[in-house]
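Need a sequence for this fold. Nothing fancy.
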């Protein structure tokens, strides 16, 4: 029986902790049915930094038992509630009690995994230094500033470097679980679990899911005005000199302040806005791609297709096929149809 330890802390997201426990219990159910055995495939258990019951939000208490978790076959660091730089930086201290044991487990060759903001905890241990990893795409700049020695590959949904596995934002934990299952129980069993979880095991990229309009928070009110202006004039030709003159700045000052506030150039920022608007139109309308291209400020469909592919790793047609909503959004269309009959 394989041992899997969930190294939670009191700030861990409760749904993620329970989702991990449930996933490996699903594995045990499938294993029991296939093998006709009462011996579980996995023993998955939570631990806490201080050995006390986990007091999770919102008011959920989860008992923990003493386990030699440093000897587990796999250790998982679940995400925690943290959305600002100070909160993300504090995650390492909240789980510092685990770090000595994590290094021991790493030396033993145990699989060590983290997803979403849990990757900040793993990075805080130093184990990710000079290693490849992924994390939540929407905290890119914060991760890079806090952990500059980590080779971040945010385009990837899942990254394995040796015995360290990291996964991207939110539901990528399912792919992380499938990767652990494959290594601990074999590829065929992992693929069966993927079907049970209704998850594509070949999902490899976060890029199609990135919202390019989400940027750094900053306090430069003039740059905020320029951002608003650009978002309201997507289709207009971009001329840097004219933009600087309109806001009474030199071109050099505009570029410097834009870089300081958003770590980007005005043109790159505008391109991101244009691609994001094109994504919304592809998701919500039946407009021809040629018409959408004109609405976001381009005339050459071929050039825009290359730009779109660069930002999303999908062509506009592929993106529409993957993400387009129906006439009305309904999470359970089959139930609706049954109810109407």
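Here you go.
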């Amino acid at each position: 029986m394989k041992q899997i330890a969930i190294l939670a802390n009191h700030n861990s997201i409760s749904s993620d902790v329970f989702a991990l426990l449930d996933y490996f219990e699903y594995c045990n159910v499938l294993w029991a049915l296939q093998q006709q055995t009462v011996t579980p495939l996995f023993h998955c258990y939570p631990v806490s930094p201080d050995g006390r019951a986990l007091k999770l939000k919102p008011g959920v208490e989860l008992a923990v038992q003493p386990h030699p978790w440093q000897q587990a076959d796999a250790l998982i660091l679940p995400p925690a509630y943290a959305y600002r730089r100070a909160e993300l930086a504090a995650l390492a201290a909240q789980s510092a009690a685990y770090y000595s044991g994590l290094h021991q487990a790493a030396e033993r060759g145990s699989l060590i995994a983290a997803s979403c903001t849990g990757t900040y905890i793993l990075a805080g241990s130093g184990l990710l230094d000079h290693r490849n990893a992924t994390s939540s795409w929407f905290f890119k700049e914060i991760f890079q500033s806090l952990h500059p020695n980590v080779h971040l590959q945010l385009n990837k949904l899942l990254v394995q470097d040796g015995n360290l596995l990291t996964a991207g934002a939110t539901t990528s934990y399912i792919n992380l679980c499938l990767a652990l299952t494959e290594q601990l129980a074999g590829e065929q069993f992992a693929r069966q679990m993927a079907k049970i979880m209704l998850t594509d095991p070949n999902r490899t990229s976060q890029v199609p899911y990135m919202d390019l309009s989400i940027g750094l928070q900053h306090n430069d009110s003039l740059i905020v005005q320029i951002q608003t202006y650009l978002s309201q004039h997507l289709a207009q030709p971009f001329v840097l000199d004219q933009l600087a003159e309109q806001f009474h700045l030199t071109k050099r000052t505009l570029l410097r302040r834009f870089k300081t506030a958003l770590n980007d150039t005005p043109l790159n920022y505008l391109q991101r806005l244009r691609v994001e608007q094109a994504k919304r139109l592809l998701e919500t309308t039946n407009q021809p791609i040629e018409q959408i291209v004109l609405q976001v400020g381009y005339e050459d469909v071929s050039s825009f297709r290359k730009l779109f592919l660069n930002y999303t790793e999908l062509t506009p047609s592929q993106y529409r096929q993957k993400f387009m909503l129906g006439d009305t959004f309904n999470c359970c269309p089959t139930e609706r149809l049954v109810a109407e009959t």
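For context: The first strand starts at residue 2 and ends at 7.
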